Backbone:
């Protein structure tokens, strides 16, 4: 039957690929969380030692809270910061400029995130250029590194390009007739923005925020290099845990907790984004 | 209908928003520009004020065959992973767009799950698994890992574009007697082409810059980010800036070329 | 139309061609040298260390650099047997390498142990009975690293310097529990048998002492971060490091220095082992012999990535001739005030070790607690 062939050509690749190269490693990792480490080597087993141990540690829950809060802040901040820029790109510039802008925003992805964070370390230092400029104005110097502020700068560096691209694509795709109609009905630009544009771009906005959350939640580069590991996030905790005699099973426990959290957030967000659409 | 109507008499508003856009772009590009400047700076540990102008770091970095090999590896991995990711992402997006079936939510969840896995654990899990399959330490291994990680982005972009397509378009093609494959080729794909190209670029970019998982899985066949990570972790050296700037300029060129190709294609 | 296509295609082909040919151009002169896979800290396979040996023996070192002994163990554990020919590890990890069966036994007659200073001949953990597993090749000392503009040398001569008001909020930690907690242990007076061999009561005391330092702490850093934050003045003191970092920074003009404080210093030690299943053991042995020779030791002492000290008598003589200033600075002169031998024999320096009466997990758990405190 020709229909079946067509349908499954599109449906199956994902299932096969993910089963082989995603579910497989994941299951292995879940299994690993029940293994023991003997003589600095992992041995397959089935014990709950690792779970007991990690769940009872206060530093785990501290790190969990910090990571969750910071990621939420990053998501909101990124969405807010990106929106005026995306709005400008979608409505205030020509098609060509927009296309160039989006391509330009893809470029940071081709530069090393590490190198960019390293550059921020230089820029934000107390003896760095930013403080030097502020010094001319008589303010500062500010200690921007090894703090929540530094970490946020890092997160924005990580997620802003992506969020702007997603938001812009979404905003630019809004049917202009809807906006025209709103004006013709006498709505002010602000009103149009909140009543027409934002709801119509809901998908892009939420997806953007979700990616910002997820990327920030799992990142260790920014909290480590710009935040001074003060306090450590879950990702840093994973690396720390593995520094003690090959304790990958313990690290797997932390990872699973992270995955569950992110999964819940992602599903909820996707539901909110695509709900009420025929699909 | 490009401009958005009469209410846009506020030039100041427009100017303000464009200024904001400029500031945001400045923020995004500040670290990149800084890195470029310091790649020519003589100081080993860059601070202000600057040292002298030098190309020493470039010479050191690029006299090493390892760096060139890493570039080669990065290119191969990124392009292959991008192709696979885009294909996979588009297929998944289309399935989500067109079909309803039992366990569909699970299907979509499966597609979107990879970015939720913290990279460090993804790296280890991939390494362990690929080792069992006998392909850890190979470029194939990295390509597979990167495809898994990048495909969700491709899917998201394609899905976004598909949601802007009028379903009547495909239906119209069928009604006119086109097979599903024909309709796909002549209607859906052309409509989605900007998204497909974006997805390709983005997934190539994701792969190009990815260092955590690559570091675990690549073994002795390193990609550029792995080399950078080793330099950064082991012994801070402005070679990083030199390599980073080179990569940046190459990507910029590629992006511009791609943009020109697309524009010309449209006109032709 | 035809013209456009031609240009486009040429452009793409040209770019691809250049990109792919570049490594070939560089390697055109090499004639198939034997590849030796090395697993090490950054810098050990760089030209300044290996180019002479490579040229003389027609080999090429292919490095995999790790950041931390645990990283090293993880990498070996997940790689096929025989991936790595030579492994450079911190001495305290040799025991773990051996316990997990990752290294080959070595023939002690091949190496110039007679040339070693007696203190380093029978290094703990490197031997089981008469069987040699790993050869010590360089070492260094950890103490108080400080910004000379912020603290005086006298102020830095005690670990209490970390609590000094002048460096409030600007004390950094190298992000590894072992060296920092060892220093805290020394501060509490745990000198014998070792700051790492302490009972429960002493361990509790170390933890409490460490927690009192938290308000002073500015952050936890890896190599890159340690270098950067000391150089740009974000941190004015750093716990858990020593000359191996400050010497490199001083060369670059940063106002930093390290001292061995009155409570005592800690010695880090690096050694070479042969990876299990390696087919190039002969060459590896030759390489280790080279590194232990006066020529090799001079290179090791002046390694660009981070300097080290020499365990061999001939090494000391060689550096005194090759670079007297460096010999003087590092104390590699017999009888010198700060010579490492003297410090070791006067019980002013203690070997870094894994904790004896607690598990590594205990120390690491506390480290995480300390960070979130």
Residues:
């Amino acid at each position: 039957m020709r229909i079946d062939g067509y349908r499954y050509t599109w449906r199956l690749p994902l299932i096969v690929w993910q089963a082989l190269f995603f579910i497989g490693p994941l299951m292995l990792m879940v299994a690993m969380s029940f293994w023991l480490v003997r003589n600095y080597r992992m041995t397959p087993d089935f014990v709950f030692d690792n779970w007991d141990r990690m769940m009872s540690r206060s530093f785990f829950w501290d790190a969990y809270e910090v990571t969750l809060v910071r990621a939420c802040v990053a998501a909101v901040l990124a969405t807010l910061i990106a929106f005026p820029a995306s709005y400008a790109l979608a409505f205030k510039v020509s098609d060509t400029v927009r296309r160039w802008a989006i391509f330009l925003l893809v470029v940071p992805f081709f530069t090393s995130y590490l190198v960019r964070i390293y550059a921020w370390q230089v820029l934000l230092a107390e003896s760095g250029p930013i403080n030097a400029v502020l010094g001319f104005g008589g303010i500062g110097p500010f200690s921007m590194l090894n703090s929540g502020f530094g970490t946020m700068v890092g997160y924005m560096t990580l997620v802003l390009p992506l969020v702007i691209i997603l938001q812009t694509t979404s905003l630019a795709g809004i049917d202009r007739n809807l906006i025209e109609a709103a004006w013709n009905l006498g709505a002010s630009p602000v009103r149009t923005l909140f009543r027409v544009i934002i709801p119509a771009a809901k998908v892009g906005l939420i997806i953007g925020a979700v990616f910002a959350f997820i990327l920030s939640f799992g990142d260790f580069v920014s909290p480590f290099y710009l935040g001074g590991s003060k306090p450590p996030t879950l990702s840093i905790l994973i690396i720390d845990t593995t520094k003690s005699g090959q304790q990958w099973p313990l690290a797997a426990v932390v990872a699973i907790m992270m995955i569950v959290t992110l999964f819940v957030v992602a599903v909820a967000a996707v539901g909110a984004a695509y709900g009420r659409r025929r699909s | 209908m490009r401009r958005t109507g009469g209410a846009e008499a506020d030039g100041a508003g427009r100017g303000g928003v464009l200024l904001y856009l400029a500031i945001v772009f400045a923020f995004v590009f500040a670290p990149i520009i800084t890195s470029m400047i310091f790649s020519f700076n003589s100081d080993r540990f860059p601070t202000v004020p600057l040292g002298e102008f030098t190309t020493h770091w470039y010479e050191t970095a690029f006299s090493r065959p390892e760096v060139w090999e890493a570039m080669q590896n990065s290119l191969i991995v990124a392009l292959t992973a991008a192709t696979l990711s885009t294909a996979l992402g588009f297929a998944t997006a289309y399935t989500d767009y067109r079909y309803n079936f039992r366990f569909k939510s699970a299907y979509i969840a499966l597609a979107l799950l990879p970015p939720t896995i913290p990279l460090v654990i993804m790296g280890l899990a991939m390494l362990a698994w690929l080792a069992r399959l006998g392909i850890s330490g190979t470029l194939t291994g990295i390509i597979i890992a990167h495809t898994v990680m990048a495909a969700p982005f491709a899917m998201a972009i394609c899905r976004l574009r598909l949601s802007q397509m009028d379903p009547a378009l495909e239906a119209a093609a069928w009604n006119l007697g086109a097979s599903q494959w024909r309709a796909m080729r002549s209607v859906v794909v052309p409509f989605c082409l900007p998204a497909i190209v974006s997805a390709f670029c983005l997934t190539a970019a994701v792969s190009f810059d990815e260092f955590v998982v690559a570091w675990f899985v690549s073994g002795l066949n390193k990609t550029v980010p792995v080399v950078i990570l080793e330099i950064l972790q082991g012994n801070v050296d402005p070679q990083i800036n030199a390599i980073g700037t080179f990569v940046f300029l190459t990507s910029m060129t590629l992006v511009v070329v791609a943009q020109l190709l697309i524009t010309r294609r449209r006109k032709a | 139309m035809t013209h456009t296509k031609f240009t486009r295609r040429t452009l793409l082909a040209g770019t691809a061609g250049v990109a792919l040919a570049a490594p070939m151009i560089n390697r055109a002169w090499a004639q198939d040298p034997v590849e030796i896979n090395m697993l090490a800290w950054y810098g050990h396979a760089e030209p300044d260390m290996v180019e002479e040996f490579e040229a003389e023996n027609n080999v090429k070192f292919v490095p995999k650099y790790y950041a931390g002994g645990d990283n090293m163990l993880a990498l070996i554990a997940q790689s096929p047997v025989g991936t790595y020919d030579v492994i450079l590890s911190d001495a305290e990890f040799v025991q773990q390498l051996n316990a997990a069966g990752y290294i080959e036994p070595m023939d002690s007659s091949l190496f110039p142990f007679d040339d070693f200073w007696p203190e380093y001949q029978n290094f703990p953990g490197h031997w089981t009975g008469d069987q040699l597993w790993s050869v010590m090749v360089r070492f260094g000392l950890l103490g108080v690293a400080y910004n000379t503009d912020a603290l005086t040398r006298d102020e830095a001569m005690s670990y209490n310097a970390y609590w000094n008001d002048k460096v409030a909020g600007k004390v950094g930690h190298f992000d590894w529990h072992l060296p920092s907690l060892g220093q805290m242990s020394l501060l509490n007076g745990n000198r014998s048998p070792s700051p790492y061999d302490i009972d429960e009561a002493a361990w509790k005391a170390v933890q409490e002492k460490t927690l009192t330092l938290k308000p002073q702490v500015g952050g936890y850093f890896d190599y890159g971060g340690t270098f950067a934050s000391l150089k740009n003045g974000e941190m004015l003191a750093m716990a858990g490091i020593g000359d191996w970092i400050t010497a490199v920074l001083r060369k670059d003009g940063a106002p930093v220095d390290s001292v061995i404080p009155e409570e005592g210093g800690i010695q880090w030690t690096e050694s070479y082992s042969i990876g299990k299943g390696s087919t190039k053991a002969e060459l590896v042995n030759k390489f280790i012999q080279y590194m232990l020779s006066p020529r090799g030791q001079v290179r090791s002492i002046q390694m660009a990535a981070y300097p080290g000290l020499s365990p061999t008598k001939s090494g000391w003589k060689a550096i005194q001739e090759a670079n007297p200033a460096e010999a003087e600075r590092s104390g590699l002169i017999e009888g010198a005030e700060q010579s490492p031998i003297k410090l070791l024999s006067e019980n002013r320096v203690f070997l870094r070790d894994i904790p004896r009466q607690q598990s590594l997990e205990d120390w690491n758990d506390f480290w995480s607690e300390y960070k979130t405190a």
